[in-house]
Amino acid sequence: MATTIATLSEKSDGTLEGLFATIKVNAPIALIPNAQKASEGAPDYRIIHRRTGFEIGAGWYRNSQRTGEEYLSVKLEAPEIGVIFGNVAPAPGGETNRKVILWNDPA
């Protein structure tokens, strides 16, 4: 079962802004396209804490092995949460500019 850990709005410049929320954390975040991407392995997005400006994660475009569709895979990391991996997906309701980050429990 996937759990929603962030709600996001997509801006016209490709930035995604919203709230990352767990039991321990409630943080405004922004996923910013990485205009400085210099290599294939570099992230496609940088994830920034909007109040502090600290980088707390990154995102990479991947292709689904099952469907071949492209999706955005993210990694968030901070002392309070450890490391969390998730995927950006359309938010329920069908609004094209609304997204969520889904976390799948690795257990």
What would your notes on this structure say?
- With 107 residues, the protein is mostly beta strands.
- The chain is 0% helix and 58% strand.
- It has no helices and eight strands.
- It has strands at residues 2-10, 16-21, 26-33, 45-49, 55-63, 70-78, 82-90, 98-104.
- Strands 1-2-3-4-5-6-7-8 form an eight-stranded antiparallel beta barrel.
- The mean pLDDT is 93.
Characteristics:
single chain; 107 residues; eight-stranded antiparallel β-barrel; 58% strand
Helix/strand class? mainly beta
Instruction: Give the strand tally.
Output: 8
On the 0 to 100 scale, the average pLDDT is 93
Low-confidence stretches: none
Strand content: over 45%
Q: Characterize the quaternary organization of these chains.
A: single chain
Helix content: under 10%
What's the main sheet like? 8 strands, antiparallel, barrel
Number of helices: 0
Distance between the termini: 11 Å
Rg over alpha carbons: 13 Å
* Shape verdict: globular
Strand line-up in the sheet with most strands:
1-2-3-4-5-6-7-8
Summarize the structure.
This protein has 107 residues and is mainly beta.
